[in-house]
Amino acid sequence: MASTQAAAATEQAPTKNPTLLAWVAKMAAMTQPDRIVWCDGSEAEKQRLTEQAVKDGTLIPLNPKTRPGCYLHRSNPNDVARVEHLTFICTPNKTDAGPTNNWMEPEAAYTKLSQLFEGCMKGRTMYVVPYAMGPLGGPSTKIGVELTDSDYVVLNMRIMTRMGKAALDMLGDSDDFNRGLHSTGDVNPDRRYICHFPQDNTIWSFGSGYGGNVLLGKKCLALRIGSYLGREEGWLAEHMLILGVTSPKGETTYIAAAFPSACGKTNFAMMIPPKEYAGWKIETVGDDIAWMRPGPDGRLYAINPEAGYFGVVPGTNYKTNPNAMETISKDTLFTNVALTPDGDVWWEGKDGEVPEELIDWQGKPWKKGSTEKAAHPNSRFTAPMSNNPVLSAKANDPQGVPISAIIFGGRRSNTVPLVLQAFNWTHGVFLGATMGSETTAAATGKVGVVRRDPMAMLPFCGYHMGDYLQHWLDMQKSIPQLPKIFQVNWFRQDKNGKFIWPGFGENMRVLEWIVNRVQGRVPTQETLLGWVPRQDQGLNLNGLDLPAEALQEATSIKEDEWKTELKSQEVFFEQLGTKAPEALMLQRKLLIARLDG
Ligand code: SAT
Ligand code: MN
Fold first, then answer.
1. What family does the Swiss-Prot or TrEMBL record give for this protein (predicted)?
2. What is the pTM of this model?
3. What spacing in Å lies between the alpha carbon of 174 and ligand 2's midpoint?
């Protein structure tokens, strides 16, 4: 489409915002779509787009009796996860992106990607998707606009964000919005780039149609650009769930917890406490991302910038996460799961019998007993948070919730004990900074390898990791009532490779200890690594079928393992060079001295 046509299309735009109109026209002139459609977020629009997506094969309708309002999408098999090696932070200086990010010089990146975007939407529609990250009108809320040629992306953004007219109204005439440009291109991994330009509040994503690569509000804006803005503006953008835990006495404590992708954030945020915890209640504020800023009363307040959940499907069932099962029972988009003959979806770890026959995630016939997975290990659901039976009323509160505890948790089969509390904020930042985790299917690459993943932000930090850790340390000065910091590990294994701790709802026992510590109710025991539950007044194990030796193993601290761990941490800190914060290096020295003493 010629640029005159682009100009004509922007004339029909439901906004007079000059910066927005000029930018849309410029991007349209480059990508040359046949049509430009401004999304308003209405039901009619959803219906229209869904019908069209069904017609063009993007979505397969599921059985309206068993999965009302649900659809299945199969992505290109070469495009099933985030691609960290193709994700770039484009800052003028390489050092600003730091050693843990891929870097491209901004002008070089714009030039390279312009060649790909040039004319890439010929014959296609460009959707203009205005969206808000955070409750509308809130002080922490940010506006983004994503231009995309994928109706699947639009339908996902509609669930994951507050999308459409309301976001455009909030933006008004302001030029303060994130500029996101996305095209699926030809879904060729050789021409796939996810580029972030923090200085320009801009994201360009080409060649993918998958989740975190293309739903630009999520990892790209809410975390990579968000973390950059957070440092400039004095707040924190974190890869954390947010939950409220209410005791039988009616006291609610809000907690934020960082775990890497596919390590159980959604399960933890929706947990149902075991029967011994009658009267306790967990409510979800968020399952993936927290934006946290100091509030007027000196506490740290968190909002969930998202409006939906993009969760891992395999392993989800009525035992591991009944609330997620309810959440995905309607109005949900499934990506890369298997299809049953009666039009329902299936995945490894779903309740009930394994079906005799299925169509697998690639659309191929599948038979029970096959060695191939029917659902991709990183298959996902996209579901509105309003479906969640335990959604906190505070999820829509623009002010957010006051955070009393921050938890860092990795996936570690050894070394890291079940739970410990940091001695203080600096030590807590050290625990977060030195987090390690075994890799999962959420990103392409080898699964099960331990890598350092500071605060679960390794793939999501939009600037130098050393500066990021220093920013965390500096935040202490602006939060008079600091949250307490904890470290957990649900994933410790025994000699036979079996998980020792039962996890899921039973994590309530650890959570209760954390709440009790925050409220100053239980004594604790000091160890080399931090404070742990005392044997007498520690974890409530009533009704839990766990032998004493198993608990002992799950909570043990083995000095030889810690010597290996410290070596691996050293490699990470060396990578940060002179930007490794002094306070963390001192924490490291203290720990070494304690272990050697
Ligand atoms: O694909 S996403 O980045 O959205 C999910 C995840 O890896 O956490
Ligand atoms: Mn995530």
1. Belongs to the phosphoenolpyruvate carboxykinase [GTP] family.
2. 0.97
3. 30
